[in-house]
Task: structure prediction
Amino acid sequence: MTRSLSIVIPAYDEEKRLPDTLERITGYLNSGKWKFSEVIVVDDGSRDGTVRVAGEFRARVRSVRVLRNPGNRGKGYAVRHGMLEAKGEWTLFTDADLSTPIEELEKLWTAAQKSRAQIAIGSRALDRSLIGVHQPLFRESAGKLFNLAVRVITGLPFWDTQCGFKLFETKAAREIFRRQQLERFGFDVEVLFIARKLGYSSIEVPVRWNDVAGTKVGAVSGLSAFLDPLRVRLHQLRGKYR
Result:
């Protein structure tokens, strides 16, 4: 790897997990595989000490940046905020719990380079033997049903749109994310849909993944997400992705 990389971490009430996550990511980046790298923590109106611990880490590691949303706007808003501020040639967004280990970035990068794709997305569905710790049965089954609905409604070919580990060529990301409308958990579907409409190439890559306790997705949010593929189609009909 010789290019430059930004890593975006959306964070809401991540005071406890964030320090270890930042240590692991910055340690990985110190391997010297990137000419330039940065880590962007986007606080989504946290009620705990997320901003404080991120700021303390930045005081030690200057490649860490801390952005703040205007209140609790949602994961989609936080990711968009970070993606549009990224300075690297490539930008990864990853969950603060590192349910997909940061080392799996190697797989996304290699797949993107071999296929000349502008987007590589981590997938739990292509090889479920890579899942170390599964979600509770109900949540895992709901996830499979959701992705089936996504394929039927949007025509997207992916088996797992919701894994929070996606790599974008930053030039493409700017065009995609500035058109994004959804601010909460259905945004993954929307940005992949926009990417396809704009003609960007995407590849789905099997990655290691472990369920981590402390999900921020409540039952109401989960049910609302099932409407998001329909919202995406509606936005398309209204011309919001032009």
